[in-house]
Design goal:
heterodimer, A: 241 residues, alpha+beta, Cyclin A, domain 1, 5-stranded antiparallel beta sheet, B: 208 residues, mainly alpha, Nitrile Hydratase, Chain A, 2 domains, two-stranded parallel sheet, two-stranded parallel ribbon, 43% helix, 11% strand, globular
Chain lengths: 241, 208
């Protein structure tokens, strides 16, 4: 979706603000919001792309006004109600309680199975991303490709600033699950994933800053062959071997 | 959206502070037996104490002193990093990018906040912020200058936008004046920001 989360290349956000010796979590609630999914059997989202889509779907003004973990909190609140784990009424009542009693503690619940599962997430090697049974990659290193000019309403990982641009396949990652469908329960559709190199001038035209390029990881479905084009998007009249 | 906006304010966020809203949902989930309080504490503690840029710094220091390890690291980052005991969520596949006198790599996620957790931990706020995400793909030199990093015009800047599940980490250049230093001494010089690619590793004289 063409949302405010797709920020690459936008103007107007000002300088990068840094914080010296920044803590991992600024306040305990941030850590709790972060850990909530992994500490439960809630099954909030079936996969990462579905959870990303939920963040992207926050109203634009909310997305921009919220801090990072406030976005997570808003997403989690909404999802818990959607899934029926808690009701709107319960939540409203409990919010009223904590507004009236801000120092009241949160009760604890012990569940050894959930604790063991949380620990296991840190010990086991993650599953490889490559899907041996997926559609094999069709492009090879060095192939010239053009990204499609597409504007899907749903989740996508092709940023606006890199649509309709010519680049070169720099690395073939293998066959990976496709975010645009897996986010919406439409199947994993594993297919070729590539690191594609775009020259700065191709992306930003004469406003490019200088010598450089941007690499994006892009799926087969985003790409079409562009032989006969040079990497600045113009017709290449040079003879190709 | 379940919230408690009172309609009198134009601010788009709920009135109740996030800390109290978190208490509200967590207490409800505890009462329903859906969540483990110990698991929350465990996960928070892992990221506050065990998983962070000190891991990536050890990888970098070893690559600086062990050419064979460096070769493996650049060829297959995931496996070389696993040799040192680091793996996990947001690190199923890690590609390591070598900075040289002629090529400078810098990593971003313009669409969200993708970051190589096993080697760098959770990202700093600036990495997830609109200014960094919007600007570093378009004007990386200007952004790096704000971090105090001046790149000569003839250096090629490669920006890596983490749009898939592959994660990127920068292998910074080893600074001069570090000859003969041990792995732990070298690792102490390596910063998170250098492994994202927004700064260089400073020679020890400048660190002191």
């Amino acid at each position: 979706m063409d949302g405010v989360h797709d920020m690459g290349g936008m103007h107007g956000f000002g300088p990068v603000m840094r914080e010296e010796n920044e803590p991992v979590f600024h306040e305990p609630w941030e850590g709790h919001v972060y850990a909530l999914g992994g500490s439960s059997n809630l099954g909030l989202f079936p996969n990462l792309d579905a959870s990303r889509y939920a963040l992207e779907s926050l109203p634009p003004a909310v997305y921009l006004a919220a801090s990072y973990y406030e976005r997570w909190l808003l997403r989690t609140e909404r999802r818990l109600v959607e899934q029926g784990h808690i009701t709107e009424e319960e939540l409203a009542d409990r919010l009223a309680f904590y507004r009236a009693n801000p120092e009241a503690p949160v009760p604890r619940h012990q569940d050894d199975a959930l604790l063991e599962r949380a620990k296991a997430r840190f010990t086991g090697r993650p599953k490889p991303l490559h899907r041996p049974d997926g559609a094999p990659p069709h492009f090879s290193k060095g192939d010239v490709v053009r990204t499609k000019n597409i504007h899907p309403k749903g989740h996508t990982r092709l940023p606006r600033y890199a649509r309709g641009k010519v680049g070169v396949i720099d690395r073939v990652h293998g066959s990976h699950d496709f975010p645009d469908t897996i986010a919406h329960g439409l199947g994993a559709n594993p297919q070729g994933l590539y690191s594609v190199r775009f020259e700065a001038e191709e992306l930003w035209g004469p406003d490019a800053e200088g010598r450089g390029c941007v690499h994006l990881d892009l799926w087969e479905s985003y790409l079409e062959p562009a032989e006969g084009q040079n990497t600045h998007g113009e017709q290449d009249h040079a003879r190709r071997p | 959206m379940p919230d408690d906006r009172d309609g009198h304010h134009h601010h788009p966020l709920p009135e109740t502070p996030a800390a109290l809203r978190t208490k509200a949902i967590e207490s409800l989930l505890v009462e329903k037996g859906l969540i483990s309080s110990d698991a929350i504490d465990y996960i928070v503690q892992k990221f506050e104490q065990d998983i962070g840029p000190m891991n990536g710094a050890k990888v970098v220091a070893r690559a600086w002193v062990d050419p064979e390890f460096k070769r493996r690291l650049l060829e297959n980052g995931t496996e070389a990093i696993a040799e040192m005991g680091y793996w996990g969520s947001q690190g199923a596949e890690i590609v390591v990018l070598e900075n040289t006198p002629t090529v400078h790599n810098v990593v971003v996620c313009t669409l969200c906040s993708c970051y190589p957790w096993p080697v760098l931990g959770l990202p700093p706020t600036w990495y997830k912020s609109a200014p960094y995400r919007s600007r570093v793909v378009r004007e990386p030199r200007a952004v790096l200058r704000e971090f105090g990093t001046e790149l000569p015009d003839d250096v090629e800047v490669r920006v890596w936008d983490s749009t898939a599940e592959v994660r990127y980490m920068v292998l910074p250049e080893r600074p001069s004046g570090t000859e003969g230093m041990s792995d732990p001494e070298l690792a102490a010089l390596v910063t998170r920001d250098a492994m994202i690619g927004v700064t260089r590793v400073q020679a020890p004289a400048l660190v002191r």
